[in-house]
Specification:
The protein is α/β, with parallel strands linked by helices. The protein contains 6 helices and 6 strands.
């Protein structure tokens, strides 16, 4: 789907570079953002009354999209398409733990349900966790066992300790 994208940049050379990236992604570049589907703003404040804005290198100001200046062409394209579809786009915060490459200290890949079980770090029993998550006690027991196995822990306390150390859970 071809989108109409207006590019606003203080630096004309940067604007030309962004226009080339946007055009290569199959979108039409516009001079004015009056009829645009999306506005791509490079370190420039743009009124949010018009089409959704993908801001590059800007501070959080309620934009539909926010990417770092060094985002890749694929990230630009994905952000433009996403905000045009009504989604909010934010680049991953490098300070926040998430999926990471496996290195010397291998962190296991946990399922969403196993991540939900971080409630065991609050000292809750299986029954209390089941009530809190709205699932059966058997499901909690199954996932706690899987979590213990993946972390190489022999107790819930050891699992919490390892999860905190590896940044898998926060208290």
């Amino acid at each position: 789907m071809t989108l109409l994208v207006a590019i606003v940049a203080a630096d004309p050379v940067r604007r030309l570079g962004l226009a080339a990236l946007v055009a290569r992604a199959g979108h039409q570049v516009l001079e004015s953002h009056g009829v645009a589907d999306v506005v791509l703003a490079d370190d420039v404040a743009v009124c949010s009354d018009g089409p959704p804005v993908v801001a590059l290198g800007a501070a959080e100001a309620g934009q539909a999209g926010l990417l770092p200046c060094d985002a890749t062409a694929a990230q630009f394209d994905a952000a433009i398409r996403s905000v045009a579809a009504g989604l909010i786009v934010r680049a991953a915060d490098p300070r926040r733990p998430g999926f990471r490459a496996i290195g010397d200290e291998e962190a296991p890949l946990l399922t969403p349900r196993e991540i939900d079980l971080a409630a065991i770090g609050d000292g809750l029993s299986n029954k209390a966790v089941a009530r809190q998550l709205g699932i059966s006690l058997h499901i909690v027991k199954f996932h706690v066992e899987a979590l213990l196995r993946k972390l190489g822990a022999s107790s819930r306390t050891e699992a919490v300790h390892k999860g905190l150390k590896q940044g898998l859970i926060e208290l």
